[in-house]
Amino acid sequence: MSNHAVFYLISDDMPVVSHTNGIYIRDTKGRRRIDTNSGAITCNIERDHPTVNAA
């Protein structure tokens, strides 16, 4: 793994999600990570949009 601050953007060894549980994401190598991205994405989804509500 690279020491670069944005290693996940330049790494050839990208993690592959195996499963999730709450705030945790497990990759196929068994490493557990905290999901730190979904909150920002959720805040950017238009509130009460018909397409979002239908999903």
Please supply descriptive tags for the structure shown above:
3 helices; 22% strand; 3-stranded antiparallel β-sheet; 29% helix; alpha+beta; 55 residues; elongated
Low-confidence runs? none
User: What is the share of helical residues?
Assistant: 25-40%
Order of helices and strands: HEEEHH
Q: What do the pLDDT scores average to?
A: 75
Shape: elongated
Give the total of domains: 1
Q: Specify the number of helices.
A: 3
Q: What percent of residues are in strands? A: 15-25%
Task: Kindly summarize this structure in a few lines.
By secondary structure, the protein is of the alpha+beta class.
What does this protein structure show overall?
The protein is an alpha+beta fold and 55 residues long. It has one domain (1-42). Helix content is 29%, strand content 22%. It has three helices and three strands, in the order αβββαα. Strands 1-2-3 form a three-stranded antiparallel sheet, with no helix packed on it. A hairpin with a 4-residue loop joins strand 2 and strand 3. It is elongated, with a radius of gyration of 15 Å. It starts with 6 loop residues before the first helix and ends with a helix. 0% of the residues are buried.
Task: Annotate the secondary structure layout.
Blueprint: H1 7-10, E1 17-21, E2 24-27, E3 32-34, H2 38-44, H3 50-54
Antiparallel strand pairs: 1-2, 2-3
